[in-house]
Write a structure and sequence with these properties.
Layout: H1 13-25, H2 30-44, H3 59-70, H4 78-88, H5 94-105
Helix pairs in contact: 3-5, 4-5
């Protein structure tokens, strides 16, 4: 028989409620979600998502992050190459580039 340990945590009630609502839609409970997180932590030998302070990122890093988070297949389409080139050469601003990239992936 498998033994289990108990974890007790304190969390803001609003965060708990909002999390439980989302987990419910996914068919999960808080206990299972924490278990998934901890197993991913072990598998990745660290957080299974980036933990960083975003304000210190350069505009190029923010654009690269947006591209990675919306695409993720490692290939940049010709349309997106044009958008990146326009941004890199200063012909469009950051917000326009991110908007255009996100639109192409949706």
């Amino acid at each position: 028989m498998t033994k289990t340990d108990m974890i007790h945590i304190r969390i803001d009630p609003t965060v708990k409620q909002q999390s439980e609502e989302i987990l419910s839609k996914l068919g999960l409970n808080m206990s299972y979600a924490v278990s998934i997180f901890l197993n991913q932590l072990i598998m990745k030998n660290g957080f299974p998502f980036p933990v960083e302070i975003g304000e210190n990122m350069t505009e190029d890093e923010k654009l690269a992050e947006a591209l990675e988070s919306t695409g993720g297949n490692g290939k940049v389409s010709p349309e997106n190459q044009k958008i990146i080139h326009l941004f890199a050469t200063g012909q469009i601003d950051y917000e326009t580039a991110v908007f255009a990239l996100e639109r192409n992936f949706s």
